[in-house]
Amino acid sequence: MDEIILQMKNITKKFPGVLALDEAQLEVKKGEVHILVGENGAGKSTLMKILAGAYTKDSGEIYFKGEKIETLSPKHAQELGISIIYQELNLIPYLTVAENIFLGREPVSERIPGQIDWKRLFDSAQEILNNLHVDIDARAIVKSLGIAKQQMVEVAKALSLNSDIIIMDEPTAALTRQEIENLFDIIRRVKQKGVSIIYISHRLEEFSEIGDRVTVMRDGKTIATLDIKDIKMDELIKLMVGRELKEKFPKIHLDIGKDIMRVANLRRGDVLKDISFSVREGEILGIAGLIGAGRTELARAIFGFDRIDRGDIYVDGKKVNIRKPWDAIKCGIGLVPEDRKGHGLVLTLSVRSNITLASLDGISQRQHINLKKEASIVKDYIKKLNIKTPGHEQKVASLSGGNQQKVVLAKWLLSKSRIFIFDEPTRGIDVGAKIEVYHLMNDLVKNGAGIILISSELPEILGMCDRILVMCRGEITAELKREDATQEKILYFATGGGKYVA
Ligand SMILES: Nc1ncnc2c1ncn2[C@@H]1O[C@H](COP(=O)(O)OP(=O)(O)OP(=O)(O)O)[C@@H](O)[C@H]1O
Ligand SMILES: [Mg+2]
Q: pLDDT tens, 39-58?
C-alpha cells in the first residue's frame, strides 16, 4: 500500500525574527504512521498547524488526495479529512465530553428543527468512547477530567470526524504506560482502516513500536525521511541534533555529604502514608513509581502546596515549619512542578521576566533591579539551555512547547535554592536538551545542593541518580543503591510486588 495521500512541498513560514519553516517537505502514505521528530523549535508543530489550517504558509504547495489545496482554514481542513490533536489540548473546559466531540456538528432533532438532539448527541459520543475502550462518561464536564482522559476525548473527536489523516502532536507526553498502550492499540486499529497518522514525539523508544516511517526536521528544514526498520537510533539522533551525542547520561560521582533535608513520618490522608527519607549534599535522589503512586503529592506536600496531617521536615538538622510555598522557598527548597503550563509560566510575559520571576524578590530588596546583571544572567541561561527564541523580550507564548519548558527550568535553576525537587523535568524536551538539563543538575550538586528527581523514565532515574526510592500507593516500598538498581527491580516494587528493607 504505497499510495501517497499527502504532499507538502517547499513550505516556508516566517514569524517576526524566526524562520520557522524553510522549504520543508513532507510526504505521507495512506495507512501509515508517519513520525515527525526534531529538536524543540525545529518547526514540527508549525508544519502541522499549516496542514490543519490554523496557520497560513508564506509559500509552498500542499497536495491532498491528488488535489492541490490553495487556501486552508481549520474548518476546510476538517471537511477535507484532516484532523489534529494539538500539543496544548484544545477542548472547551466547561462543556460536556459529548458536546466537545460534536462541536459545530451536533445532531439535530427530527421533530423540532434547529434543536439539538441531546439523546443522540450523548449516545453517539458514548458509543465512540466505548469503542475506544476508554472509561469516560460522555456527559462528564471536560474540566473534571484528568489530562490523559482529555487526550482521549481529543482522539475520540478526531476519529468521529472520519478523517483520512490524524495529526497527533506529542500525544503521550502526559500519559501513563497503560494509557499509552491503549492509545497505540487505537492507532493500530485506525491504521487498519487506511487512516494515516502523523505522530510527533520526543520519546524515541516509541518510534519502532508504532512508526512506519520517520521524517526528521532541523531548523525549519526537513532533513530526511526514512523507513523506521532501516534506521538505528543513534543515527536518528545524529540527524536530529546535527552532531554525535556521546553520553546520554553524564553522571558524575561526588562524595556525598551530610543530610541536607530530612522528612520524617509525613502523612497526608491516604495519598502519603508515613513517608521518611533524607537527601544529602551532592546527591541526586530518584523517586520512581507509577502515576498515582504519590510522587507529585509528596513534592507538593514538602513544598507547602498541600497541607499535611502530620510529619516533620528538617533542613540542615533543624526542624522547619512549611505551611505554604513561600516558607519552602525561604528554607532553600525549589520545586520545578510537573504541570508547567499551570504553575510554571506567565505566557503573556517575556522570556526574561519569566526566568527572573522567582528571583526578583532578592533583587528588589535592593530597591531596584540591576537590569544589566539581569540581562546577562538571562542571556547566560538562554545559551546554556539552548532556548530557541529571537531574543529575551520575546513573549513565552510564542515559543515552541519544549522551549517553554526550558524557560521554567531556567527560572528555578536561577533561584537561590539548595534543595531542588524536579518533577518530570525532561518531559517534552528533546534529546540534546535533556543532556543539558543533566549537566545543570550536575552543576547544582557540585555546588553542594541536593536534588530529588521524580521521573517516569526509568533510564533517566537509573542513569542520573545516586540512590533511588520507589513509591507505590503512597508508601516508599524500596530504597535502592545505584549499583543495585535495575528496571525490573524498580518495576517490581512500583507495582506493589513487595517491600524492600535494606
Ligand atoms: N505564533 C508564533 N509566533 C512567533 N513565533 C512562533 C510562533 N509559533 C512558533 N514560533 C516559532 O517557530 C519555531 C518553530 O516552533 P514549533 O512550535 O513549530 O517547534 P516544534 O518543533 O513543535 O518544537 P517542540 O518540540 O518544542 O514542540 C520556534 O522558534 C517558535 O518559537
Ligand atoms: Mg511542538
A: 999 999 999 999 999 999 99
Instruction: Single out the residue of 13, 15, 18 nearest to residue 387, CA to CA.
Output: 18
b/e sequence 46-68, b meaning 16+ C-beta within 10 Å: bbbbbbbbbbebeebebebeeee
Sign of CA pseudo-dihedral 340, 345, 351, 355: negative
Binning the chain into helix, strand and coil, the percentages to the nearest 5 are 35, 25, 35
What is the domain partition of the chain in residue ranges? 4-241, 259-494
Which atom belonging to ligand 1 lies closest to the Cα atom of 404?
26
For residue 44, the ligand 1 atom closest to its alpha carbon is 21
Locate cell 536530529: which residue? 240
- For residue 107, what is the DSSP state? P
Find out whether the beta carbon of 398 lies less than 6 Å from any atom of ligand 1: yes
- Whether 395 is in the pocket of ligand 1, judged by its Cβ within 6 Å, is no
In 3D, which of 466, 461, 500 has the Cα closest to residue 481? 466
E strand or H helix at 268: strand 259-268
Query: For the structural domain made of 259-494, what CATH number should be given?
Result: 3.40.50.300
Sign of the four-CA dihedral 255, 258, 260, 264: positive
Is 46 near ligand 1, meaning CB less than 6 Å away?
A: yes
- The answer to whether the pTM exceeds 0.85 is no
Report DSSP state, residue 416.
-
Nearest to 400 by CA among 362, 351, 458, 449: 351
Q: Which pLDDT value is given to residue 309?
A: 95
Answer whether CATH 3.40.50.300 is correct for domain 4-241. yes
Q: Which three cell numbers stand for residue 396?
A: 513565552
Over residues 279-297, the pLDDT tens digits come to: 999 999 999 998 778 998 9
Q: Residue 176 pLDDT more than 90?
A: no
- Asked, colleague to colleague, whether 4-241 and 259-494 share their fold, the answer is yes
Length of the chain: 502
Task: Take residue 230 and report the three cell numbers written for it.
Answer: 532501516
CB within 8 Å of 151: residues ≥ 6 apart: 85, 89, 171, 174, 175, 179, 183
Instruction: Give the mean model confidence (pLDDT) for residues 271-277.
Output: 95
Determine the Cα–Cα distance for residues 53 and 469; give it in Å rounded to an integer.
Answer: 47
